[in-house]
C-alpha cells in the first residue's frame, strides 16, 4: 500500500524530477571524486640556510634524508685562511665528521696532508670528486668552491682555478643531511666569510593542505553524493513494501550479547597488544607538530595515505591520553558493533529461523569463534577491526537491499565500502559483496528500471539506468574523497613507489609464506591465532561441499535437508574465498591480516554448524569429527605467545599447550580414534547403536563450540594468571591505567644504574692496584689488560660486531675501533680495571708459549654497601653461562666464604658486553669476590671482566623523564607511554636523546625496518649520535632480557636550523622525483631510474 499523498497525475512528474536529480547529482559527484586527487594543493615549502649569524655547526636531520637540491659556496679566502691554520680541518660536512658514515653518505669538504703538501678534497657519497692543492686557493683569481647537487646532475668546481672541476651528469649524488658542520669559526659578516653559504631545499611534498578549489570540489562532491542517495530513497518509496522485521527483536538483549560484551570488555583490559600497536600510536603521537602523519619509522617520511584515515582518530585521542586501554576504546566499540551486525542482521539472513537447533548452535558458534578472532587478532590499533566491521556491514546492507528490494541500502553499502577500503589494502575484499550478488542485484535494478521507465522506450530506459547507477557509482567513488582529501596524486605516486622499491613487497605467488608463519612456533603462529583460522578454513570447505551437494540433489529432483538459506550462504562463502584471494595481493604476508575475517569467519562457522546438522550418515559425521579433532590438535601444538612486550611471563610461551600431557597430542589421538570409527562404519554400516549415540548430529555440530570454549578458557586463564603473577605484564599495566594510577608502562619497572663508574666496589684490602684486586693472587690463564692494547681492542671490537652491523653492508660499515666504545655501559676505559682470559697466545701462557688448559681467577674481597640488593659485573666474550660466580662473606678479615659460590646470570647471551647480575644477596654479607673459570680458553672461548658493582638504581622513567625526545623502536611505543617520541616539523626532525629497543630476539628480527636502507630514523641516529648503552634491569626478573636503553650523545654540538618557509600552490600531478636516493638492493645506488 502506497504511502504517497500525491495524485496519480503528479507521480510521473515527481518520478521525472527524482530521475533528473539522481542523474545530475550522481554524475557530478563521480566527476568530482575522480578530479579530487588531481586538483592543486597548498604545500608548505622549507629551505635550510647556513650560516646563521655565527659561523658554526647546525643540527638539522632531514626526514627525507636527502634534499630536493643542495648548493654550497665556500670563498677561496676562507679555504686559504683555514689551510694555514691546522691539519685535518673540515671546511664543511653534512654529517658530523667524527662519524664513520660522513664520507659514505654525506658531503665532506676537508683539508688533508702536511703543511707543504696540503690539499682540499671534496668527497660525496663515497666518491672523491675533486682534489685541489690548497695553495691554489690563495691565488687572486680564485673565487669560490661550489657544489651543486640535484636528482639529475652533480657538479663541483673551484671557480678561478683551471681544471679544478668535476661533473656527474645523470647521477643522483645528493648528500644525506644531518646538519651543517664546520671547523670554521667566526661571524657571518667577517670579510673572510663573505660569500660563504649553503642551502638545501627540503622535500616537503607531503606537507600539504587542500586549496580552496580542491576543498570546494570535495565538499560539493560529498553533498551531491548525499543528494543522489536521497533520490535513491525516493525511488524506493515508489517500490512495493516488504514486511518489516519488528525492531524490538533486534534491540532486545540476548544471552550471547552478555557473554560477548563481557568477554570483550575483560580482554580489552587484560588482553595482549597486537604487533603494530606501538607503531601506530607513535605515528599519531609524533605527528602533532609535523603537519601530516608520516610513517615515522620507514619510507623517508612518506605517509600511509590514502590508507589509514582512522589514524586521525587516534591522533585526536593522544591529545587526551596515551594509555593503551584509552587508545583502543574505538576498537572495543567496533568489535561490539561487529557482533551486533553479525547477530542481528547476518545470522538471521543465513539461518532458517524455523530450525531451533541450527539457530541455537549457529548463534553460539558465531559468538564464541568471533571472540577467538578478536582475542587473537583484533584487540589493537591495526586496521583489521575496522575492515572486519566494514566488510560485514557492507554485506549486510547489500543483503538488506536484496531482501527489501530497495536501492538506498546499496548506496549506503558503497559509502561503507569506500571507508573500508581506505582503512587498508586488505579492505579490497569489500567490493566482492556486490560482485558476488550481481545476479540478484541485476534483477533488483531491472525492477526499478521498469517502474522508472514504464513505457519501455530506449531513451527513457537508458536515462533510468543512468539515474540508478550514477548515485551508486558516486558512493563507491567516495574512496577518493576519503583517501585523497589532503594528499595529491603526485605525492601518492611517490609514496607508493618508494614502498614498492624499499619493500617489503612480496608477490602474490608467495602467499604460502603467510600460512607458513601461521604454522610457525612464534607469536604469528600461536595457538590463539591458529584455532579460529583453521576452524574457519575447515568449515568453509564443509559449507561449500554441503551447498554443492544440495545443488546436485536439487538437479536430480531430490530434497536436501538444509537449515541454511542457499543464496546468502553462497554469497558469504564466496566473499570469504574472495577475501582469501585478495590477501594474495597485499605486499606483506603477516598473519595479522586474518583479523579482517573476524565477522566473516564467525558467520562461516555458524553456517558450518547448520551444515553439519544436515549430514545424514554417522560415517560422514565421524569423518568430520576426525578432521575437527586433527585441526584442534594442530592448533594446540603451538605456543601461547604474544607480541612484545605482552609475552613476558605468559604461560606456555615457549611450549605447546599442555597440562601434564600435550593437549595437541590428546586431540591427535582422538582424531585417530574418529578415523577408526569412520572406517568401522564404512565396513559394517551405520547400524551400531553406540556409534549413533556418540555421533549424534547435535553433539558433532557442537564440536566447534566446544573447541572455541576451550580456547577462550585457556586464553583468559593464562592471561589472568600472567596478570596476577607478573608485575610488568600487559594486563597489569592496563589495569593500572584503567584504575587511574600514574602508569608509565615498562619505564616504571625497568631499573637503571645511574652512575656505573661510581658503582664499582672498592677492594677490602688496599694492597696493589685495582686491577691486581680483580686478578687475585693465584690466577692462571688470566692477565691484566687495557683497551689501548691492540690485541685486546681487536677482540673487543670483534665481540661487539653484532651490535655494530655486518661489515660487508655498505649501509652499516664497521666504524674504527674507539677505546671509548670498547668497555660497555659507559665505563671509563682509562679508569676501569680489565682482566682477560687467554685468547690465542695473548694471555695465560706458560714459558713454553702453550695456552693453559684452564683459565681461572679468584679476585680479592670487595666491600659491599649496606642493604645491597643487586651485584653486577660487566663482561664480554664467548663463555658458558656458568663461567662467572660470586662468593660472599660476613667476615672479610677471616676470608671464609659464606656458603657455596652463586652463578651470575645474563639477560642477554650475545658475545657483546653483558651486565652479569645477581639479586640473591645473603642477608649478612659484607663482602663479595669474583670467581671465573674457563676449561678450554682460546680464540673460541674467552672472557674479559671488570670489577663488581653495587648499582644505585632508579627507574628508567625517572632517568629519561617526560620532556626529552626519545626514539622508541616501533615495538616499544605503548610500552613507554610517558616518554615523548621525537617530533618533526617542516621536514626536519629533532635529534632524540635516548633510544629504547626491545629484547635481542625481537630486535634482531625488526631493527632493519628502521635503518638507512628503509629510510627510517635508525639511519639518522647512527650518523648523528654515539650510543651508550645504559645498564638496565627488570625489577623482580633480573634474568629477563626486557630490551635496551641507550643514551644518544651527539657527535657534534650544533645550533638550531635556520629555515625559510613559504606556502606555494602545486599541481595535483606534481612529483619532483623519487624519494630517497635510488635505493636498490643492499646499497645506495646513484641511478634514479631504478625507482620508476
Automatic annotation (TrEMBL):
Gene Ontology cellular component annotations, sorted alphabetically: plasma membrane
Membrane topology: Multi-pass membrane protein
Residues of the Arabinosyltransferase C-terminal domain: 729-790, 825-1075
Spans annotated as Disordered: 804-825, 1049-1092
Keywords of this entry: Cell membrane, Cell wall biogenesis/degradation, Glycosyltransferase, Membrane, Transferase, Transmembrane, Transmembrane helix
Subcellular location(s) of the protein: Cell membrane
One Pfam match: Arabino_trans_N
Matches recorded under InterPro entries: Arabino_trans_C, Arabino_trans_C_2, Arabino_trans_central, Arabino_trans_N, EmbABC_dom1
GO molecular function, a single term: arabinosyltransferase activity
Gene3D superfamilies in alphabetical order: 3.40.190.160, arabinofuranosyltransferase like domain, EmbC, C-terminal domain, subdomain 2
Biological process annotations from GO: Actinobacterium-type cell wall biogenesis; cell wall organization
Family statement drawn from the similarity comment of this UniProt entry: Belongs to the emb family.
Function: Arabinosyl transferase responsible for the polymerization of arabinose into the arabinan of arabinogalactan.
Listed name of the protein: Cell wall arabinan synthesis protein
Organism of origin: Segniliparus rotundus (strain ATCC BAA-972 / CDC 1076 / CIP 108378 / DSM 44985 / JCM 13578)
